[in-house]
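As a next step, we paired sequence with structure tokens, yielding the entry below.
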Amino acid sequence: MALITCKDVTFAYEGVPVLTDVNFSVEAGSYLCIIGENGSGKSTLIKGLLHLKNPSQGTIVTDDGLRHNEIGYLPQQTDAQKDFPASVWEVVLSGRQNHSHLFPYYTAADRREALRNMELLDLMPLKKRCYRDLSGGQQQRVLLARALCATTKLLLLDEPVTGLDPVMTGEMYQLIRRINQEEKVTIIMVSHDIRNILPDATHILHLDQKQLFFGSTADYLKTEYGKQFVGGISL
């Protein structure tokens, strides 16, 4: 069953279309990579999937019991976020704010879920550390754990390895793969790093102010768009 379905979706700013003809669905357990050049509409689509921007035409429907507040989101980090003066534990636990209780009063279930995700991402040794004192790779793991605290179904990741060195990049991809394959969390990732994503992505959505392609990764590599964008890589 599809978690999210976009049907005949168009987004516009001040009446000017910026992304048109979007039609795709994301099945539970899949790993969708959204690709395209800068300005192709990727960020606009992510805002739409998060219900932060309404389409000017068409519909975005969530199903399979997925509520709007059950989508985990890892945005691109800003410099201000990197200097956030809180402990690792506080940052991860804050991912439970979307659940139905009065913030800042966290329940025992909230704390158990935060601990489970910290253990999953090997963050327990950093629990009491200040977030802003961590390396870039450690900060991204903390934010990934925070995003996981919001969901057991769907993660939206916006360029999650930007600014990381090759070793940290590889570790992030391994963690995301584990979350998808072992935790059965559906992944939607915006990425320019298509060569490293290909082994994990089940589906590709290629945008260029409209939808150029949506389908399996294997089928994408057979298209002219795939050959040009990826450069002849095979799975």
Summary: DSSP finds nine helices and nine strands in the chain.
